[in-house]
Amino acid sequence: MTELYRHPTGGDPRLLIGRCQMTLRRSKEKGPDVAGQPRTRQLAATPVARYAVLVFLLAAALVVTVAVALDRNARRSSWQEHTTALAGGARVGASSFESLRANLRVQATQLATSLPLQRAVVTGNEAELRRIAEARHARIDLGGRTIGGLAAAPRIASSAKITDGVRVLANVTIALPLGDDVLAVLRQATPLPRHAGLLLVRDGHVIAGGPKAAAVNVRGGRVTLGETAFAAQAAPLKAAGTSLVAVEPVSAIDSLSERYRRFVFLAAAITLALAAVLANRLARPLAQVVGDVARLRRQAHTDALTGLANRRELTLRLSDELERAARNATSLSFVICDIDDFKVINDGHGHQIGDEVIKAVASVLAGSVRETDLPVRFGGEEFVIVLPGARLANSRRTADAIRKAVEELEIPVSRGEPIRVTASFGVAEFPTYATPESLLAAADAALYQAKRAGKNRVATSTVHGESDGPDTAAEPAPVV
Length: 480
What we know:
This protein has helices spanning about 15-30, 40-110, 115-125, 125-135, 180-190, 250-255, 260-275, 285-300, 310-330, 340-350, 350-365, 390-405, 435-450; strands at about 140, 145-150, 155-165, 170-175, 195-200, 205-210, 220-225, 230-235, 240-250, 330-340, 375-380, 380-390, 425-430, 460-465, 475-480. Among the domains are: about 105-175, Beta-Lactamase; about 310-480, Alpha-Beta Plaits. The chain is α+β, with helices and mostly antiparallel strands. Helix 2 packs across helix 5 and helix 10 crosses helix 11. The protein is extended. It has 13 helices and 15 strands. The strands form 3 sheets. The protein has a 6-stranded mixed β-sheet, with helices on both faces. Strands 6-5-9-8-7 form a 5-stranded antiparallel β-sheet. The protein has a 4-stranded antiparallel β-sheet with strand order 2-1-4-3, with helices on one face.
């Protein structure tokens, strides 16, 4: 409590109180002032006012700082959330585009193998060939003759050949124009934020979804079309110079955090008003604000579902542990754990039961490691354990003990028998793998081998041959 009232120059508040008491005693000896008021009251009012001003200024600085930090974090979090959603949407759209290309190849093959077309090719029935080409928007090449035409560029096309077993009789080509129709199909299959959209871009210019021929140059996750700034994430398509860009107006992203921002600054204003009136009682609300900041800090490094560390904490902690291990010439083990057949559990029992499974496995991990170890929820049904000072053999035994504990879990469901789960593990060791990336790759390769070997087992990673350099790990050879 004393710290809240410390003088900004470093003076001890107890000394100031002592001085005030001495002044009061002296004033009593001198008697009343000219106005008839006791001199004691006048002198006592001065330090009280100073404390009130000092506490208010400290409270104002703290409240303003916290409000700005919360607002900035909210903006950053909202931006990261939406850019991640845009990047995922662009990738999904690119995958849907590949499905369109595959369907186009199937259609070309089906047309080439259709009996009417083959009969028309063999008999040279040009009228029938022209009818088929027009009906299917196809181009049929017969030696030196071409019947039908394709959609104007830009487009994607697929061809199939008609042969008699020896020579090519005809070549059939079907094309799909890259335009608004294709973009509409991709948009229906792509999850995006509410105000987001898709653009088809070819050679740096819009061909669908926005102002035609507008230049698109994505830099730092942003792009400007006309006078409007957009958050943007792009994914290349397997068509020359073509990409799919997911965009969302920056103003739409900012507006989502506007309500939270108003709440934060309203709370700050009310807190300052209360501090001005009740400066001597400001310690409690200040402590509450500081506690809120600490909780937000913990939440930034903790997985909300399991209470384990999250990937951000793993990135920070793993780098520190590797530096410490290299400095002290000790070892470090890295374990990846993946719940077997987790999708089956989610599909069969729902995501709520899936969450219960994840929490149960996380509890086993948290209760099976040392205080110096770091259990992490890596994402989805994957976990990571960092074991400072542990050699590969010891870490393998630890992973196997955890595996057995997971195997004994029983997760109750509302109907039927409790769910039993298993997990597979991959283990890698420093200094065999000297960087976070190589450790992760080696452990992941070992996990893959454990999965291939039948799941519910532990695989360790060793090295074949020599590495090319201090930062380049050799190809892992997991041992189950």
